[in-house]
Amino acid sequence: MILPIVAYGDPVLKKRGEDLEKNDPELPKLIEDMYETMYNAHGVGLAAPQVGKSLRLFVVDASGFVEEGDEEYETLKDFKKAFINPEILNEEGEEWAFSEGCLSIPDIHEDVYRHETLRIRYFDENWVEHEEELSGLAARVVQHEYDHIEGVLFVEHLSPLRRRMIKGKLQNISKGKIKVDYRMKFPKK
């Protein structure tokens, strides 16, 4: 089922997500719905807070993020995962800029600086524990989604000046004054 994506300004996007319980009977359906919602909105990642659930869960599928022949194609072509109760253990390497966007903040893309490499521990949808090192675009996608479960939005990484410059656009999004080709849920007035 395609879920509405929560728009900028909704308090759920600013809350730290709660850990999930291993035997949660609703989890498999939620993961399935999150993938369907992400694909419908042409995203490469989606965190539970973006569908109104304050949980430590996000899904990614970066297979369409780069084209065959691109430097990171081999790394990303099968990069489809669910991250349950993840914990970033370490971030290192030089910070580099990349233009990020967000399904909860449509039509805004800004350069965000993030570390090149990270080490993360998480459970997959079968509750198998993993510890992995990711770098490049894979690390960036995970860092962006991880921020969501920490209650942080990519625009918070921008300079105060840049944030002032996009303030009007952000206010319009929170008021529902935006056109997108996917379902959104706007904050109540």
SSE blueprint and pairings:
Elements: E1 5-6, H1 27-40, E2 45-47, E3 57-61, H2 73-76, E4 80-102, E5 105-123, E6 129-135, H3 136-149, H4 160-165, H5 167-174, E7 184-185
Parallel strand pairs: 1-7
Antiparallel strand pairs: 2-3, 3-4, 4-5, 5-6
Catalytic activity: N-terminal N-formyl-L-methionyl-[peptide] + H2O = N-terminal L-methionyl-[peptide] + formate
Organism: Phaeocystidibacter marisrubri
Cofactor: Fe(2+)
CATH class: Alpha Beta
Percent range for β-strand residues: 25-35%
How much helix, percentage-wise, in residues? Answer: 10-25%
Overall outline: globular
Low-confidence region ranges: none
Count the E strands.
7
Task: Give descriptors for this structure.
alpha+beta, two-stranded parallel ribbon, five-stranded antiparallel sheet, 189 residues, Peptide Deformylase
Provide a descriptive summary of the structure in words:
Its cofactor is Fe(2+). It catalyses: N-terminal N-formyl-L-methionyl-[peptide] + H2O = N-terminal L-methionyl-[peptide] + formate. GO terms for molecular function: metal ion binding; peptide deformylase activity. The chain is an alpha+beta fold and 189 residues long. The chain has one domain: Peptide Deformylase, CATH 3.90.45. It contains five helices and seven strands, in the order E-H-E-E-H-E-E-E-H-H-H-E. Strand 5 and strand 6 form a beta hairpin. It is globular, with a radius of gyration of 16 Å. It starts with a strand and ends with a strand.
